[in-house]
Amino acid sequence: MSDISFTTSAAIHIGGIITESGLDTLVCAIAASSVGGDWGAKFHSAAEIVQHARAAAAGGSPLHLVSFEAPDGAFPSIEQACRDLGLTYVRGTDCRPDGSGAVVMWWPGMDQPRSWVGTVDAHEPCLPYRRIVELIEADELPKELALMKAAFERPEGLQIAA
């Protein structure tokens, strides 16, 4: 991996059950990450973030956050908060220095996030031919496709517990 940092477009969908105190923790991570709920619009206050999260929860949707300038195409503070709080996330990253985008997912029980080549807009993970052959030979292709399907379908909606 290169020591050179870059910024690129990225979007993250967050789902699962969160408590009010957990929401405070997540809001702090979001506020520190210079993201918004829509492309080109950053949150300016914690109250805006809470309103956006409550609207997602009320609609049964995942919490959707985006940035045109995500450092290294990721949201480290947000992703760590999600893992600490047991919230599922799927992140799509636009073009990286190697020319490919990425789809990254994590849900409770996983040791580490999983990533594939993919796109920020569709969150559609892809497998290179050689990796497909390796998975077929190891009889692991169905398992990998199930993970990819879960990433593509995005997490369940955010729920705020009383």
Offer a quick outline of the entry.
The protein is of the alpha+beta class. Helix content is 35%, strand content 25%.
Write the layout of secondary structure elements.
Blueprint: E1 7-19, H1 20-31, H2 46-58, E2 63-71, H3 76-85, E3 88-93, E4 102-106, E5 114-117, H4 129-137, H5 141-153, E6 158-161
Parallel strand pairs: 1-6
Antiparallel strand pairs: 1-2, 1-3, 3-4, 4-5
Helix pairs in contact: 1-2, 1-3
Q: Which structural category do the helix and sheet elements fall into?
A: alpha+beta
Percent of residues in beta strands? 25-35%
Q: Tally the helices: what do you get?
A: 5
Low-confidence stretches: none
In helices, the fraction of residues equals 25-40%
Number of strands: 6
Strand and helix order: EHHEHEEEHHE
Instruction: Report on the biggest sheet.
Output: 6 strands, mixed
Gap from first CA to last CA:
43 Å
Summary keywords:
alpha+beta; 162 residues; six-stranded mixed sheet; globular
Descriptive overview:
The mean pLDDT is 89. The protein has one domain. It has 162 residues and is α+β, with helices and mostly antiparallel strands. The protein has five helices and six strands, in the order βααβαβββααβ. Strands 1, 2, 3, 4, 5 and 6 form a six-stranded mixed sheet that branches. It is 35% helix and 25% strand.
